[in-house]
Amino acid sequence: QVQLVESGGGFVQAGDSLRLSCAASSSTWGDRSMAWFRQAPGKERALVAAINRSGGIRYYADSVKGRFTISRDNNKNTMYLQMNSLKPEDTAIYFCALSYGYSIYYTASEYEYWGQGTQVTVSS
Question: What is the DSSP string of 44-79?
């Protein structure tokens, strides 16, 4: 069993930055790829960014490309999402997720463990 705990969310103004963190309870997470998803009110959970187990391959949704950066520190069992130039449409609950495997996966069903989520609110 792996527990994931997100932190770093908050209320910011458009154009500001935030860094989300996701701490894992088990070192076995390093064998698997991870991702950040987000869910806005009334919308489905959507993939924001994903990273493979080594950190060498990263995926970004078009809506965040060039503004967000996903990274991981396997020595600290922690994954990050640096979010710059935030927009009101980035407002959502952000979840970190640990996949079943080591590649990049695009759907929520391919992720085994989830954090509880952290709220990000961007005001215009």
Answer: --EEEEEE-TTS--EEE-TTTTTTEEEEEETTTTEE
Task: Give the span between the Cα atoms of 41 and 55, in whole angstroms.
Answer: 30
pLDDT greater than 70 at residue 27 = no
| pLDDT tens digits for range 110-120 | 999 999 999 99
Residue labelled with tokens 């076995």: 28
Bridge partners, residue 83, by sequence = 18, 68
Task: Name the region of 66 (left: φ>0; alpha: ψ -120 to 50; beta: rest).
Answer: left
Of the candidates 77, 85, 92, the one whose C-alpha atom is nearest the C-alpha of residue 38 is 92
Model confidence at 29: pLDDT above 80: no
